[in-house]
Amino acid sequence: MVVGAALDQLLEEALTTKLVHANRETRDKLFGEYGALQTFSAKIDLSFALGVVDRKAYTNLTIIRKVRNCFAHADGFLDFDAPTVRKFFQPTPTKEPSKSPIDHFIGIAGEIETSVNATCGLPSRGLIEKVKTDF
Fold it and tell me: If you write DSSP's letter for every residue of 50-98 in order, what string do you get?
């Protein structure tokens, strides 16, 4: 959940760099409680549409969003080895089969953070590295 929240905040910052009128009122209207860009999903879609993220990052952000939703809506204990979570990290020709689901999750989050920072000229704050040390 923390990784998803960190990436949600990062996308909001990145999208803000693309706004012509980025004052507090505009940001509140877009990203606030009833704003069109309040949800992680909306931020992911617009980030892709504006070129803030590429197709690979878009796909990976969607996986992170879905995993975050699995944890958020779980009826009981859930971890990365649960079938409902593990299914997002099944080995394919483009994924490393030796990585555990949590390592894969953290890895793609780190790639996204690096890419978004570079695309939008944001300074690296190592959000995902900080989260990684908590595991």
Answer: TTSS-HHHHHHHHHHHHHHHHHHT-SS---TTSHHHHGGG---TTS-TT
